[in-house]
């Protein structure tokens, strides 16, 4: 019998580690070059952690209300979760365009 709980815990830990590394890298970029691209990248990476934790807590509380509440929470999460990544991608695009001009 597989221990799926351990797989999910390891996967969640790796996901959190990756997000923290991206926030650290964006923070270093922001300190070295403060422009709209680096601000958007940093904001998007921090917002992805905040939203991830927020929806984890919201899902936990909504599970106590019942399946309809969990479904509503997941629907909201499917709309809001990509927004930080879109911010990050726009910032990366702006940053890359500025670097190519140099």
TrEMBL record:
Stretches that traverse the bilayer: 6-31, 38-63, 75-97
Entry keyword set: Membrane, Transmembrane, Transmembrane helix
Name of the protein in its database record: MotA/TolQ/ExbB proton channel domain-containing protein
Lineage: Bacteria, Pseudomonadati, Bacteroidota, Flavobacteriia, Flavobacteriales
